[in-house]
Amino acid sequence: MRNIVMTKVSGGGYPNPKLNKSRRKINTFYQIDKQNGFTLAEVLITLGVIGVVAALTLPALIQTNKNVEVEARLKKVYTVMNQAVLMSEIDNGPKEYWQFSCSTDDNDNVNSDECKQGIEKYFLPYVKTTKSYTFDNSLGFNTVLYFSDGSVLVGKINKSNSQNALDFYFYPNGKNFNPDRFGATGEDGTQSREDCGITFFAFRFAPSQNTEANKFHYKKGFEPYKWNLNDLTTDEMTGSHTYACTKNAKVKVWCTALIQANNWKIPKDYPFKVK
Length: 275
Prior knowledge:
Elements: H1 17-36, H2 40-92, H3 112-122, E1 131-136, E2 140-146, E3 152-158, E4 166-171, E5 201-205, E6 223-224, H4 234-237, H5 255-261
Antiparallel strand pairs: 1-2, 2-3, 3-4, 4-5, 5-6
């Protein structure tokens, strides 16, 4: 049998072997934890790296998600409105013979009842909206359609409307629509659509106008704005024209056609960040 020699410690009494063994285990645990843990500096450096990576990648991820949302809603409104045209033709005859008029009096006041008739007769009964209303400004008479996904479509009939056409402006995010800014003119008196291709996108309905400038709308339905395009190439839509989809262009109404030509996908070299 093994003899255990107990040595008396100061303060009286003898050390407990079991207690000493427990203390050795605790000390060993803290030594291991200290060796495997992180210092405060290391934690701060790691958090800093994570923050930098997030700052670099998060905006791109947010923009990618926004692009996908805009693409889906552009394609959706294109489908919905063209289905409305087909249904309306059953009741109102071929679209080439539809009439859109918006006359004014000597004081340039529009005939509201006449102006409203076009969209209210040919489109409103055939699309599902959460609400709609009308207003007029210096450009013409406007009908605003709100959809359940939060998007907004504004249909505009020009005063006098000699072209017998409708221009549409689609806001994928309806919160970007401001009637006070809609159709505003610049200091030179020229209509400015600086947000076109960014917060809203232009469409056109002009099936009866058989002219060179309107050749991509003649006998067509609800189409991306292509008036005055010579051809449907990327070079043409991103050229030097004031309608082109470029940062230097003032009107930029061809951006919708550019996206459609890319199978309703925003091109990788698209000049703007959509909102």
